[in-house]
Specification:
- This protein has about 80 residues and is mostly helical.
- The protein folds into two domains: about 35 residues; about 45 residues.
- The chain is about 60% helix and about 10% strand.
- The chain contains four helices and two strands.
- Strands 1-2 form a two-stranded antiparallel ribbon.
- It is elongated and about 60 Å long.
Length: about 80
């Protein structure tokens, strides 16, 4: 595999051969980074915008409120709280 670096100041392009060991190390580092993301951070990233819930309350739109709650419950099921 080849990694290409481009210097935006000089316009120079440099190609580097990447070893299987470097690829494996990069994959392991990415796996560790992803594993370190907590369930709470994963949930927070995917929860719907709370303004949708508030909008439903202001409008008295129970269907919109229920849809928001359902979406939140789906995220909670996707990323369950770890056992203590």
């Amino acid at each position: 595999m080849i990694r290409i670096e481009y210097n935006i100041q000089t316009g120079e392009t440099i190609e580097h051969l990447v070893s299987d060991e470097e690829i494996a190390a990069a994959q392991a580092a990415e796996a560790a980074r992803l594993a370190a993301i907590t369930y709470a951070e994963k949930r927070a990233a995917e929860y719907p915008d709370f303004r949708e819930y508030l909008d439903g309350i202001v409008k008295g739109d129970q269907a919109q409120i229920d849809a928001y709650i359902s979406a939140c419950q789906a995220i909670k099921a996707k990323y369950p709280k770890p056992e203590a």
